[in-house]
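Subgroup meeting minutes
Present: P.N., E.W., G.H.
Scribe: E.W.

1. P.N. recapped why we're keeping a running log of single-chain structure predictions: easier to compare across weeks, and new members can see raw inputs and outputs side by side.
2. G.H. added today's entry (115 aa).
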Amino acid sequence: MPTLYGIKNCDTIKKARKWLDQNGIDYRFHDYREDGLTTELLKNFLARSDWQTLLNQRSTSWRQLDAAQKSDLDEDKALKLMLETPTLIKRPVLDNGGQLVVGFKAEQYQAEFDL
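Output recorded in log:
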């Protein structure tokens, strides 16, 4: 069963969940705030998607970081930042067993589920 990761009050998450529901796709929703985010889960994400894709540098959370936190980024530093502030992870993250689908575009989801 696919798992959709994110935060339930995010507008993009709401769009992705609506699309999944409308297309009759059963899925599990994992809310970072309620269900947590572990190092193991994030490392699993990073093994299947690059950190530049996962780290949302256009988010409000990113803009609130200081210059030192934003400088000299690499995978380890990005991992630490995302663990400390899960809202830095681009949403949603869809895990359908293969590569992760990061972000929501209906066309991407249609391709992912062969619709």
